[in-house]
Every structure is written in structure tokens, then in C-alpha cells.
Design a protein that fits this description.
Blueprint (H helix, E strand, L loop, with lengths): L1 H18 L2 H23 L2 H4 L5 H13 L6 H19 L1
Helix pairs in contact: 4-5
Amino acid sequence: MTGEITLKGSVVGELLKLILNPFVFSGLILYILSTVVWLIALSKATLNFVFPFTALIFVLVMLSARIVFLEPIPTLRYFGILLICIGFLLSSIA
């Protein structure tokens, strides 16, 4: 029984340490914030208008990786970003 309590205590302690990590904690906060923003957007507009905005996540992640982490992005991927942006614009016009 002592071993089970010790194991449970160490698991809870490790989980708490993980959640309190500044990177993990900020990621959880941003995830909660994005969920709230998504729900607000859905309450103000229709799903077929709001959903194409999720395609912009691919663009933002790729550009953030380039700017923040200085990751190289192949030319073909820039073409993919352009296609996503064109598709987004076409769907928002219609």
C-alpha cells in the first residue's frame, strides 16, 4: 500500500510540475483562449464562413517557424502557402 501511495504521489507531483512548466502552461492558456475565440466566432457568423479561417493556421505556423525558429522553407512550400491564401480569398468572396 505504501508503494501505491508513493507512486500516486510522484505521478501527481510530476503532472503538476509539467503543467506549471511555463511553455506548457502558456500553451494551455492559448488553447483555451483559441477555443473561446472560436466559439465567439461561431456565435457571430455561419460555420461555412468561419471554417476557412482554420486553413490560415497552416500559413501562420509555417511563417512562424521561419521567423521564430529560422527554419528553412522550400520554395514549393511557399507555393502551397500561396494556394492556401488564394483558396481562402475565393471562399471568403463567395
